Amino acid sequence: MSEKKSCCPPKTAPENPAACCPPPKAADAVAEKTACCPPPSLRERPGYRLWSFVSGWMNTEVGEIPQVRTKLDWGDRVGRWQMRWGLGRMRYRIAPGLYAVGRPDPQSPVLVTANYKMSFDALRCELKGRHLWILVLETQGINVWCAAGKGTFGTDELVRRIRATGLERLVSHRRLILPQLGAVGVAAHEVRKQSGFQVIYGPVRAADLPALLNGGEKAVTLGMRRVEFPLGERLALTPVELVSMGKITLWAVLILLVLAGIGPGIFSFSAAFSRGTTAVAVYLVGVFAGAVLTPLLLPWLPWRAFSAKGALVGAGLALVILIASSGVGLFNTLALILSLAAVSSYCAMNFTGSTTFTSPSGVEKEMRRAIPLQAGALLLAGIFWLGSGF
Amino acid sequence: MKKMRYLDNVVTLRLDEATCIGCGMCPRVCPHGVLELFDGKARIVERDLCMECGACARNCQVEALSVKAGVGCASAIIHSWLTGEEPSCDCGGSSC
């Protein structure tokens, strides 16, 4: 762990931020950094799991509130890496409620976020040296934008959480700062009507929060309100895209190995192996073309439809393979081009769900046209490939 | 780098300018600059950049805006075709 001064005993498993200090009794009047570990007897309470980002506790009007660190430690980074690969995403959540950064008072701003730990981490690591409150909503471990789309990061949950935490007794003002993308699920005028709190939509990215906190709402520029989709973000989304193809890949491998064995001798295990592994390799190249290459090359590929972009990349890779190989026959050539284009096209079409600029109406329109073409290409490829086995 | 665009003439965003009171909320919450305020009224300036997230309609206190918002995830849409349910990220896909 990168924390220099930790009063907690070393943890045995760093990837499991297990309980170290449960909240002390209110009577302990803690909130001092030195008192983060109460006597062992107090630590031994069942059912408590404390994240390593909690540095202490603040005794407030509405009870004990955990103080959080503004620096990510090694465990946070491992967790983020796991999320990028889709490992245990549904368990990566923190308890909803109030958290403190620094030593906030009743005038301090209140930031609202989701209880997906990666969202919470992205927020707190931009708040170094500040004193404010964070209100975490229960979004079932989903990030702000997606949760807002589902409605879990929404008006009802926000109003409920304000009441449940006693926020109106904790702060003297009536302002909440929400990430702009939360507006998909939260109706600011409804929140005001139901709770008395005014919703201020901050910038899209937590990294731009200092502008708002230092200069007020007018300091939030147009650029801070826009969503782009740069190379780095597209790259970060590709691992989980690959992992999500895992189940269908297992089936594809099984089917390809069985089909590969079909030939003049009805079924041949040696053919199943030699032709089958080639077919599996072709399939994997198709997935790579559609789920990795196409997202990365997105802005430079022609046409708007993702399925068309994906088909182009797949067919292009097929040509490269054909040029590099020493002739595979007409049937196999056609099968290779058609199958790579179809698989890549389908995977690329799936990536629409991860982008920040595709509309559901557009995706549906594209799918109605693309899926029959993809299925047809795959069927033809299959016929050519099986035909080449005889 | 130029802004990435998706298909043209598909979005369901509608603005009733007569109802609009020009509060300025929709341009603020739109992540793609689809709406702007002109002479105290909102106006759709970049319709084809709309991704139908629904933030503008949700935060319009006079309901001048409407849009069929939803998830643009292919596997969710396939799931909804097969089951007849509304597309949602809960279809077992690990995205979102």
Automatic annotation (TrEMBL), chain B:
Family matches, as SUPFAM superfamilies: 4Fe-4S ferredoxins
Gene3D superfamilies referenced in this protein's UniProt entry, alphabetically: 3.30.70.20
Coiled-coil annotated residue ranges, if any: none
Keywords, ordered alphabetically: 4Fe-4S, Iron, Iron-sulfur, Metal-binding
Record bears the keyword Iron: yes
Pfam families named among the record's database cross-references: Fer4_10
Residue ranges of domain 4Fe-4S ferredoxin-type in the record: 11-40, 41-70
Official protein name in the record: 4Fe-4S binding protein
